[in-house]
């Protein structure tokens, strides 16, 4: 990676880090502000709701006090005591489910009470327990609280008059507390009416004697909890529940239809946002408020949006900066590449001129030596064409390899070497340099072109073996080449030409920095060439050529 690219990446990374930090800080500030605003709004809504509930409870308790204060008659054993109050209580508040007049009956007053119930038209006039079993007055020593009048009167409520509520598990305790305090008392939450009736509370207001020395009865009002405390609006920011005073781990919740149900306190480990305490019926009630949408969640959403916008802007800025900077870097590289290309083009032209001059000099020498005075024109023409063809072949091979050298076995192709089908090639396929390839190509042509074209000593054409090997390692390695034409002799083999002798004995060895020798054996003609591997391969020439021919790096 270049230094300029590293610098560009560093700058973009710095911009990205700064942008992310700023986005994070902005998101944090937005989170704090939004959560504070949401908490304040939620707190105000809860305070308004709690104030409305408390006002509603105060009005209901006031209704009970007013209703009980209207009773100023000594005759309380009557079944129409609510008659004077009916228009008044409905005008004051009409959201109670049941209002009742409960008188404290002594055992000797049972007969009068039964007569009043019969006079009022109730079907069952027996004074009985809350479960419906009759009460024997002789077994009583204290007064009992008996329902004498109800409002409204319907098929479900007409069975209540005549029942004593002292033994009721919830209402009995409420009457006892009211007698003790002399104030209106509220009951625990209970089912109103049937077993599947709504959950509500009963407020009992004691009716005192003229001198307020004792209670002669009670006015009771039954209220549905959903309408009294737990109104939940679908558009509200919160839902409200009532902590059940009977069970500390239970909450009373009103659903969207106004039906109150029980559920475990703090569902899913969620804690209420606020808890408000209401006073009703001389006792405290706890209302817990749960946020429908947590202000922290909403603040997190807004903060996430702000952070996403900040990050998007950061990425856009980094992208634009990177694009502009990269364009500048690319432009500078293009300029550098153009300058480098021009320099290399000059070097290539110089190298090409050098190689062309060398090739022309070799061709000039070939022509001069081949067409010397006194040479046979046909033979000279054949040799000239073959030598130039050999030079052309090696130049083609070098062009294909971008002058990086030629594989040695490639010089023995049939298109450049005469009688190639009679040559057995044996040796490692090494890559020789361009200079060595030119010398070896002419050398192989001269050797092959002077092999016997007539009959051999035994009536067969010579068999040729071209072999080479590399001896030693490193800088001391030596290239050893051997050409041997079997089944020939000095009498049958065409004599080497003047150019061939010069090439075999002087030009090729000097070009490769080695030595050569040629001789006849009993059955073969042998030519041997030995040269250092460093001149045959010529790493320096290959590197220089490779640098010139290699593509420009961007």
Automatic annotation (TrEMBL):
Native organism: Rhodopseudomonas palustris (strain HaA2)
GO cellular-component term (any): membrane
Domain (CHASE): residue spans on this chain: 134-229
Enzyme Commission code(s) on record: 2.7.13.3
Annotated TM spans: 302-324
Annotated GO biological process: signal transduction
Keywords: ATP-binding, Kinase, Membrane, Nucleotide-binding, Phosphoprotein, Transferase, Transmembrane, Transmembrane helix
Broad class of where this protein is predominantly found: membrane
Enzymatic reactions: ATP + protein L-histidine = ADP + protein N-phospho-L-histidine
Pfam families (alphabetical): CHASE (PF03924), HWE_HK (PF07536)
Top EC class for this record: transferase
Localisation: Membrane
The protein's name in its UniProt record: histidine kinase
InterPro entries xrefs: CHASE_dom, CHASE_sf, Sig_transdc_His_kinase_HWE
GO function terms (MF aspect): ATP binding; protein histidine kinase activity
Organism lineage: Bacteria, Pseudomonadati, Pseudomonadota, Alphaproteobacteria, Hyphomicrobiales
């Amino acid at each position: 990676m270049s230094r300029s690219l590293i610098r560009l990446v560093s700058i973009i990374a710095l911009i990205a880090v700064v942008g992310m930090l700023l986005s994070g800080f902005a998101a944090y500030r937005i989170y704090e502000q939004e959560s504070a605003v949401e908490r304040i709004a939620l707190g105000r809504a809860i305070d308004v709701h709690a104030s409305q509930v408390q006002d509603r409870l105060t009005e209901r308790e006031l209704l009970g006090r007013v209703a009980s204060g209207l009773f100023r008659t000594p005759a309380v054993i009557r079944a129409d005591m609510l008659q004077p109050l009916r228009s008044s209580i409905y005008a004051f508040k009409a959201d109670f489910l049941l209002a009742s007049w409960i008188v404290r009956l002594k055992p000797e007053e049972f007969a009068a009470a039964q007569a009043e119930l019969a006079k009022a038209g109730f079907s069952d006039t027996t004074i009985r327990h809350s479960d419906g079993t009759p009460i024997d007055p002789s077994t009583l020593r204290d007064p009992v609280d008996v329902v004498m009048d109800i409002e409204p009167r319907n098929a479900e409520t007409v069975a209540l008059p005549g029942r004593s509520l002292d033994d009721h598990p919830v209402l009995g305790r409420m009457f006892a507390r009211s007698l003790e305090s002399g104030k209106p008392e509220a009951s625990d939450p209970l089912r109103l009416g049937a077993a599947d009736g709504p959950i509500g509370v009963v407020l009992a207001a004691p009716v005192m004697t003229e001198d307020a020395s004792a209670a002669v009865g009670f006015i009771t009002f039954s209220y549905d909890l959903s309408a009294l405390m737990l109104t939940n609006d679908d558009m509200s920011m919160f839902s409200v529940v009532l902590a059940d005073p009977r069970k500390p781990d239970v909450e009373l919740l009103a659903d969207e239809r106004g039906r109150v149900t029980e559920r475990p306190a703090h569902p899913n480990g969620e804690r209420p946002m606020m808890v408000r305490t209401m006073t009703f019926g001389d006792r405290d009630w706890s209302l817990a408020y749960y946020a429908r949408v947590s202000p922290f969640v909403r603040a997190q959403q807004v903060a996430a949006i702000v952070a996403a916008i900040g990050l998007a802007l950061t990425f856009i800025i980094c992208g634009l900066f990177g694009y502009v900077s990269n364009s500048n870097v690319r432009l500078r590289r293009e300029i550098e590449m153009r300058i480098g290309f021009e320099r290399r083009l000059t070097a290539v032209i110089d190298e090409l001129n050098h190689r062309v001059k060398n090739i022309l000099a070799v061709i000039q020498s070939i022509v001069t030596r081949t067409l010397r005075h006194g040479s046979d024109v046909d033979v000279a023409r054949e040799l000239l064409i073959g030598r130039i063809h050999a030079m052309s072949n090696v130049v083609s091979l070098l062009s294909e390899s971008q002058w990086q050298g030629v594989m040695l076995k490639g010089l023995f192709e049939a298109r450049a070497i005469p009688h190639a089908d009679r040559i057995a090639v044996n040796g490692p396929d090494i890559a020789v340099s361009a200079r060595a390839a030119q010398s070896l190509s002419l050398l192989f042509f001269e050797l092959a072109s002077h092999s016997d074209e007539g009959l051999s000593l035994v009536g067969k054409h010579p068999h040729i073996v071209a072999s080479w090997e590399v001896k030693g390692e490193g800088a001391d390695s030596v290239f050893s080449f051997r050409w041997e034409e079997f089944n020939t002799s000095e009498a049958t083999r065409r004599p080497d030409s003047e150019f061939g002798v010069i090439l075999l004995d002087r030009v090729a060895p000097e070009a490769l920095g080695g030595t050569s020798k040629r001789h006849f054996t009993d059955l073969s003609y042998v030519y041997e060439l030995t040269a250092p591997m460093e001149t045959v391969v010529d790493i320096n020439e290959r590197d220089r050529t490779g640098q010139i021919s290699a593509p420009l790096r961007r």
